Amino acid sequence: MINKRIWMMSAAVSLALAGAAVAQDTVKPDVMKHVEAGRALAGKNSPVGLILCNGALPASKKDKLPNVAELQARGGVAGQPPEPAKVFDNLYYLGIRHVSAWAVDTPDGIILFDTLDNHTEAADAIEGGLRKLGLDPARIKYIVVTHGHGDHYGGAKYLADKYKAHVLMSAADWKYMADRFATDKPHPGWDGPPAHDMVVTDGQKLTLGGETITLYVTPGHTPGTISSLIPVTDHGARHLVAQWGGTGFNFPHSQENFKIYADSAARFSDIVQAAGADVPLSNHPETDSAIVKNDLLKTRGNGPNPYVLGKDATVRFMKAFSECAQAQEMTY
Hints:
By secondary structure, the chain is of the alpha/beta class. The chain has a single domain, classed as Metallo-beta-lactamase, Chain A (4-Layer Sandwich). It contains 12 helices and 12 strands. Helix 2 packs antiparallel against helix 3, helix 2 packs antiparallel against helix 12 and helix 9 runs antiparallel to helix 12.
């Protein structure tokens, strides 16, 4: 009799555990709708769809993630940092394996986007990279910091002090950066923030040497992330870069924060579509496959520029961020 009761209790526990497993594997239809949309928009092998949408799913339904280290290393020699690259007639890649800096060259100077983690990386990859590409870092006039994380502002103080360049951030992220650095334990590889300088407003135009870049405040990744439209040319042919300024969901997870991110990404997608941008760009090379594309440029010849994906693909790239954020939002 005792053995029978033990068996019945064990069976009940097993059934309960099985029920819990089923519950854990159950995904709300609306969540799955946004996950599938994000995956489809980003493309089968895109880290955007795979990594960002996976967070809304139980383990059994997650896509198999690529090895991020491998994604970062593609196109480079193992153990070596990526080489600087001329991507367009006036746009240059100056990044390292985990984060990108971009330089826009104009007749009157250089507009730099982001500055890596610290002064050493800025000296090696940005100053050294510009010199390797035949550009003088003393021509840096403006430094746009896309958001207030140290892997983007870390080298800004060094470069701004050395070259008397103006640093631009949104008002929200000037405050966010200063508050975080004062209250949180900074990453040991990050240098301190630059001195408060120019404040970016939504839709602001930044003109230098006849080229005009448009800056948008797109909160989500941080309270005042900046995304941009950057005119470029490729052998004289004009194209328009859309740079999404803040990729990951490494902010306090809440329904409200995911909604803010999703709404910003959807709005910027509309801006990108209306402007006719045809080049999607990120500030992390594993997101836009920058190192892979730089490697393809070496053997391009007279073929197409691997960065030019077309207007539809560029809008899809941006919309994927919104769909993945909406999927996460609906889990709360």
